Every structure is written in structure tokens, then in C-alpha cells.
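Appendix C reproduces, verbatim, an entry submitted by the partner laboratory led by Prof. M.T., so that reviewers can inspect both the input and the predicted structure.
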Amino acid sequence: MAIIIPFTLLWWAWNILLAAAITVNAVMVTFGIGFDRDFATHPLLIAAFVVHLFDIPIRMRTGVLNDQTISTDMDAVLKQYLERWLLLDILATFPYEYFLTFSGNYGAARWFMLLKLLKMGRLHETIQIFRQNARSSYSMYAFFVTLFMLYFFLLHF
């Protein structure tokens, strides 16, 4: 199996798609909880769920940055992912709200949706990688994504 090399077109495209999915989760989950709305079956949240579901195996096959060098050793990639992100990705991706809604526990289902916001850490890490990479022509993109997320965060108040 091939390793996805960071800073390639595929890597950029996946991170942009993931940023969009995280944004959808951040907006719809907080709006749903704040205004007591059920968005569990909304098409955008379902699409974001699919993106997050595919993110786990993709991240297991994506090279990692170690001291300004890209490591493509499969063992190192898996070890770093298992140590840093696997548990958070599983907690943030598992569809608790569907199981709790079907069991009749609607109140808990709403609050378990907050676990989806754990993916914000992934967005933060990606933005930090954009900023640290001086060769990147996408550093302005990272700035605008941060600004966009801050804008949506401030809209909730």
C-alpha cells in the first residue's frame, strides 16, 4: 500500500475537504444543541460523517513531519497515529446520536454530539503544519481557514 506524502495535491485536497467537514460539524452541532434542533439526519452532517469515517484509514497511510523531514516509514506513521489521533478520531466519528436516539435517550444524544467537535484539534494541527512550512504557498489559505473558523465561532455568541 502506498503512503500519502504530505504537501502533495492529494494531501491538500483531503485536508480542504476535512476542514469543510469539521466546519459543518462545528456549525450544525452547536446550532442544534443551542436551539434544540435535531440535525442528526441532515445531509450535510451525513456527508461530514462519511468524510470523517474515511479520514481514519487515510490518516493511517499519510506520512508525518518529524523535525522538518517527512517520514514515510509505515511503522513510524502508524505508531504516531495510534499514539496521537486514533482514540480522538474514533470518539469524534462514532455516531452516538443515532444509537441513543433509537434507544429513546434524546437528551444524551444531543450532548454526545459534542464529541464531534474533537476533530477541531485535527484542523488546528493542519493549520499549524501550513504555518510551519515556509515553502508552502498555501499559508494564506491557512490564515483564511483560521479566520473563517473564528468567524463562525463568534457567530454563536
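Residues 9-155 form one domain. Additional entries are available on request from the coordinating office.
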